[in-house]
Write a structure and sequence with these properties.
about 500 residues; alpha/beta; six-stranded mixed β-sheet; about 40% helix; globular
Length: about 500
Amino acid sequence: METTNKEVKILQHFVNGRDFSGNSNRFQDIHDPSNAECIAKAPLANQQDVATAVAQAKKAFPAWANTPPAKRAAIMFRFRELLLKNSGHIAEILSREHGKTLEDASGSLARGIEVVEFCTSITTHLRSDFSAQVSSNIDSYNLRQPLGVCAGITPFNFPAMVPMWMFPVALSAGNTFVLKPSEKDPSTSLYLAKLLSQAGLPDGVLNVVIGDKITVDAILEHDDIKAVSFVGSTAVGEYIYHKGSANNKRVQALCGAKNHMLIMPDADIEKTAQALIGSVYGSAGERCMAVSVAVTVGDEVADALLQKLIPKVKNLKIGPYYMKGVEMGPLITKESLERTRGYLKAGQEQGATLVLNGDETKLQVQGCENGYFIGGSIFDKVKPNMSIYTDEIFGPVLSIVRAASYQEALELINNHEYGNGAAIFTKSGAAARHFTHNVQIGMVGVNVPIPVPVAYHSFGGWKRSLFGSSAIHGMEGIRFYTKLKTVTARWLDDVKDMAQFHFKAGSDS
């Protein structure tokens, strides 16, 4: 329901199992994107605040690392139950700060819960290999052991799902963790951390510090942090990768995207158009797996697609998250809104055809006149040299590129600097197989518009969509948050030496 409470809440960090005000005396306003009202103030951690959180994580590490994996799994089971029990409340916290619909918020939370479910099987994921008798009386085996204190830096667009791509895996593997959520919508991460405490997580194992670049640099420079996970823009991700690596940290940085959908002449146009509605305009386009380019093979396909697509986009119900039946919410900030408007202007100036201008949408929502709303937009006849094609807009804008052949379409996708996700819509098994084997993309969908892997597979792009060698969650996540130790052991097989041991029936010694 609509929130009418005008009180501005002062948030705090969460360190060592309790609220922590910090020492920086720096704050950032958090706004409700539907009406631009300030609803909270977030503290921005300085170097000392980060050092406090890391010190608590380091202190908690030895006991947590030695906690049997089965006991860690039990905490994850309880955490999962608390997430399910409080899912409606979490979705509302998320939607109020981010602006996305409750349906979108609930869906992203469900994907995060999948990762927690994966972590409940940590005893299986940490099993080692054993080779007996590699030489005379010699066995060889390996162990996966935790790294120590790890950190996560997460974006505004998925304040529940993306943090849960990180800290449940890291904690289940025996590490302690410092999470820095986006300062634009940190309340969800704070709530998740408190739920984990309720589930029985010892104090200091998970800590949350809110902050900006000063906070990020403090994380990257701290000697006791062994690994950093990041999801966000390419410019920031590249910076984090190089600076973190220079400070001898493991870094996985999942970055920008320009996801394509290749539409073949045999595709079902109605189903394809419907798939595009969710994948382009869901979460107002503010997600790294959003489809922002439709590549049609042949003009007939493009014309038919536009005929189906335009009325669907025009009829999208846009409004605040609490409005019944709303399909798309606002962008998160005024700056995001102005950035999207700038791309609509640039696309026209560079020669693309703006067949549907979402900025002309006039919303009649009482109390939301100042919200950061914009309707869905469609460009046609987009060329690869245009900024609306090269750049990640992060708004509800679709570019249609017309290709003369499948091969031209494939080369277009492979030539883009980003390699996060791509999909092909077709009825041809041969075309689908060729596409999946030859497209230079990390995550591929066949008649699936947003090919986000389930939690027991791993998420990650190619090219400038990923810095570092590791994808996130799934078994790649387990490998990222653990170090491999290989043991080669020789035990002398001498019966005489064993005579000194006398075992009695029923004895535990």
